[in-house]
Amino acid sequence: MRMLLVQPPQGTSFGLTRILTSEPLGLECVGGALRTRGHDASLIDLRVDSWESLERALDDPPRAVGITCAFTTDVLPVREVASFVKERWPELPVLVGGHHASLLPDDFIYPDSPVDAVAVGEGEFTTIEFAEALERGQAPEGVPGILTLRNRGNGFRSRPFTRELDELPRADRSLSAPYRRWYHHGLQPRSASLETSRGCPFDCNFCSVWVFYDRRAGRRSPSSLVREIETLEEQHVFFTDDIAFLNHDAYKELGERIAASGIEKMYACETRSDLVVRYRDLFRAWRRVGLTTIFLGVEKVDDAGLAEVRKRTKGGVNTNVEAIHILREEGITPMTTFITDPAWDEADFDRLEEFITRLRLPNASFTILTPLPGTELYARAHHPRLRLLRRDALRAPREAPPRALLRALRGALPPRAARHAPQLRHGPARGAARPRRQLLGDAQGLRRGEGGA
Ligand code: B12
Ligand code: SF4
User: Fold this and answer.
1) What is the domain extent for residue 232?
2) Which end of the chain has a smaller Cβ tally under 10 Å, C or N?
C-alpha cells in the first residue's frame, strides 16, 4: 500500500522557526520502515512546499495519509492538513504521530475530528502494522500504539520502545530529496539530521522527553552510524539526540571510526554541561573529527534555579561555567540556552544579564518557562484551564502576539506567581495595552471555562 506523509506548515512565528528548517526525520523513519516491508511512501513538506502540491499529490489518492506533530504549536496546522485531506477524500484514513501527538492525543482524537488515529510513541513498527491492518481490511485498533476514538477508553495497547536502535529500519532520505536544499540550521547552508540515540535518563520538570521515552535511552551502533554518515550528501550534520555524548565509549568509537573512514563533515548537537566536564578528552577528540557547535542546556544562572527545574547538573552552576570554558578552549562553539520565568522580577533579569555579559555569550537563547504537555509543570498547572488557554494562544499570535501571549501567561500561571509577575500586571510592553480590569476579566473568564477557541 502507499502512504502519503505530510510535514505540516510551521505553526508559529515564535522560536527558531525563521532561522532553521530541519529535515523531517520522524517521517523519513516512518517512510523508510514502510518501504522495507514492500509498501510505498511519498512525502510533502509544507514548510517549504505549497498546498497545491498537496492537492496534486491527492489527485491519485494514497491508501492513507500520515502527518507529524512534534511541536505543540503544530496542532492547528496538523488539523488544517487533515481537514484538507478529508474535504477531498472523506474516507481516506488520516494518522497523526510525533512527540506532541503522543503526549496529548486528545488534541486529535475527538468526535468529528479530521484525524482517525494517533500513533503513540515510536512510529516505525506501528506504521507498518497499521498499513498491513488496512490492507487486510481490518480495523487498526488492534495494532499496539494505535489510538482511536473507539479504543481510547478501553482496549488501547501501548507499544514498548525499541532499546537497540539498530533493530529499527533506517530513515529513507530519498523521500525528502526535492526539499533537501532547503534544510538548514542558522547560518549553515545545508544541513542533515542524524539520530545516534533516543531518549534521556534525566527528569527535568520542564521537559517531556523522559516521559515520552520512559526515562531511558537507546542508541545505535557506531558501525551502522558511520555507514549512514557516508551516505549523507550534506557537509553539516545535526545529531538529533536528546543528549548526545551520553555514552562515552560509544561516542569514542564513533569518533574513531569517522576519523578512520576519512569522512570530513561538521557536526552539531545538544548535550549537558556535566558531560562536557566529565568527558573533556572526548570532546577534544571530536573537535578533530569535525564537532563545531554544541547546544548546551545551561537553563539557570544559580544552583537554586537549577534545583527548581530539577536539572541535576553535577556541580551545579560551576559546572555550567566550566563547560563553557572547556568548549571554547577546545574550539567548539557553545550555544547556550536559558529558561526565563514569567514570575521573575527585574532583579532576576539583571542576574541573567550579568551572567551572560560576564561569560561573553553572544549566542545565548532564551525560552520562557512554558508548561508543555507531558511535563510535570503541565500536570501541576491545572490541566483543563491550560487546554483552553493553549488553543487560544495558538490561534491568536499571528495577528496580535503581545496580547495573546499575555493572556496565555496570565491564565497558565498559578495565581500566586501571576500576582508576582510585574510584566503581566502592567500589560504588554509595546502595542495597544488594554485596561487591567479587562485583562483580569479575560483571565478569570478563561479559568471558568468561558474563553478559548
Ligand atoms: C533535535 C531537536 C531540535 C533541533 C532540530 C534540529 C534537527 N535537525 O532536527 C533544534 C535544536 C534546532 C531544536 C529546536 C527547538 N526545539 Co526541539 N527537539 C529536538 C529533539 C531533541 C529531537 C527531534 C527528533 O528529530 N527526533 C528524532 C525523530 C526520529 O523522532 P520523532 O520526530 O519523534 O519521530 C518518531 C516518532 O515520534 C514517530 N513519528 C513522528 N512523526 C510521525 C508521523 C506519523 C504519521 C507516525 C505514524 C509516527 C510519527 O515516529 C518517529 C520514529 O519513531 C526533540 C525531542 C524529541 N525526542 O522529540 C526536541 C523537541 C521537539 N524540541 C522542542 C522545542 C521546545 C524546541 C524549541 C522551541 C526550543 C526553543 N525554545 O527554541 C526549538 C524550536 C525549533 C523550531 N522548529 O522552531 C520540544 C517540543 C515540545 C512541544 N511540546 O512543543 C521537544 C519535544 C523537546 C522537549 N524538551 O520537550 N530542536
Ligand atoms: S532537558 Fe535534557 S537532560 Fe533534562 S530531561 Fe530533557 S532531554 Fe533530559
Assistant:
1) 183-332+345-366
2) C
